[in-house]
Amino acid sequence: MNTSGLRLRYLFDRYYNQTATPQERDELLAAINAGITDDELAHHMQQAWDGLHQGEELFDKAKSDAILKNIIEKGEDDEPQKKGNTLLLWGKIAIAATLMVFAGIYAYHWLQPAKLAKPQVAVVKRPAHDALPGGNKALLTLANGKTIVLDDAQNGTLAKQGATIVKKTADGQLIYNTSAIAAANPTPSINTIATPRGGQYQVILPDGSKVWLNAASSLRFPTFFTGKTRQVEITGEAYFEVTKNAAMPFKVKTGRADIEVLGTHFNVMAYDDESIMKTTLLEGAVSISSGSFSAKLKPGQQAQIKTNGQSKVVDDVDVDDETAWKNGIFQFRDANVGTILRQASRWYDVDVVYRGQLPKREFTGRISRNVKASELLNMLDYAGIKLKIEGKNIVVL
Q1: Does Glycosyltransferase appear among the keywords (predicted)?
Q2: SS3 string of 177-231?
């Protein structure tokens, strides 16, 4: 197989950025298997390393270069077990995968196409205990007090409340369809959907607005909207795409603030165990108020409200960082270790146990939320943060 250097660089870039198709991953492995030299591999790894986002590395340049040199040298020492369908340079591509961890930006699990035999070379040690990622799990509480476990309920119609029909879809959506409101039933019922730790869910409200709930969150809302406002209440974290209706503004109430919009996309992070509540605007406009603080946000701005009442608006926020969870990604930028572990605790349904002190440092990184907890911890381990899983606990060593 004769794969050009330009094509190899393209394949490496696609892999590092998590955009490679299965066919492109197979092509990259086949190119390496077909005889790419150590020098060529090192060259393309170096190019991919240099091409990562500048100014976001975990280490300074001198240390980064030393780590990269060590990775390449280690790869040159790996000996393949056998030829044929076994990946001859598996150790090197696995090490190349760890390059993303060191860069602290696009960490992801290593390549492992099903048709290739798994080699004996192991770069990352897997723990005896692990925790699985979360999924579409939630509990719906109807106005009459009846509860429905959505992850167990069959797809289709779940309930009828007055003029509103509640349906569940196969892809983790709860849909409220409301017909013409009968005069005999002018008062809407109130429903609540709550996700556990390790859960997430999406709700389409009666007005067509969409709400994504993160783990350990809840949304309280009426079965149809009436009056002058459309009001809901949340705990935890939720992403909103609100349907425009100038005659009926949409309001979100949290424990710390009230948010009002006409039609817009925004994210609210309001967990009780987080010291800062964050409201991040992606498009449109929102007004937020908390005590004496009030602000009108523009796209790219974030309102921050601390538990002690201090508040401010931050400009030029990376909205992808704030909404990555909705797209199935852990994404951290200058995040302290405590913040990362709280997210892990909520998503993997585990507790954090402190046997040692957390390092006072910040971390930048990115990894799929579909991986097991051990892979997230491995990413942190490469950055010098020592953790392990014991049963239902993440232990800080």
Answers
A1: no
A2: EECCCCCCCCCCCEEEEECCCCEEEEEECCCCCEEEECCCCEEEEECCCCCCCEE
In angstroms, the CA 301 to CA 314 distance is 6
Which residue has better confidence, 183 or 130?
Answer: 130
- Distance separating alpha carbons of residues 396 and 238, to the nearest angstrom: 29
Out of 3.30.420.40, 3.55.50.30, 3.30.420.10, 1.10.3720.10, the CATH code matching 328-396 is: 3.55.50.30
Residue 334, pLDDT > 50, answer yes
> Quick check: 368 and 108 in contact, CB under 8 A?
yes
**Quick one: tokens of 67?**
């780590």
Check whether 297 has a pLDDT greater than 80.
yes
Pair 170, 199: CB distance under 8 Å? no
Query: Are residues 14 and 24 in contact, defined by beta-carbon separation less than 8 angstroms?
Result: yes
pLDDT of amino acid 19: 66
Of 381, 372, 378, 368, nearest to 330 by C-alpha is 368
Burial of 273 (0-12, 13-18, 19+ CB in 10 A): exposed
Give the sign of the dihedral formed by CA 103, CA 108, CA 113, CA 118: positive
Residue 134 burial (C-beta neighbours within 10 Å; 0-12, 13-18, 19+): buried
Cα–Cα distance measured from residue 161 to residue 350, given in angstroms and rounded to the nearest whole number: 36
Buried b (16+ CB within 10 A) or exposed e, 329-360: bbbbbebebbbbbbbbbbbbbbeeeeeeeeee
Rounded Cα distance between 69 and 77, Å, is 13
Average pLDDT score, the chain: 77
- Is it true that 135-322 and 328-396 share their CATH fold? no
Beta bridge partners of 149: 139
Tell me the pTM: 0.71
Question: Measured in whole angstroms, how far is the alpha carbon of residue 52 from the centre of its chain?
Answer: 20
- In terms of pLDDT, which residue wins out, 266 or 113? 266
- How is the chain split into domains, by residue range? 5-103, 135-322, 328-396
Question: Is residue 56 a contact partner of residue 104, using CB atoms and an 8 Å limit?
Answer: yes
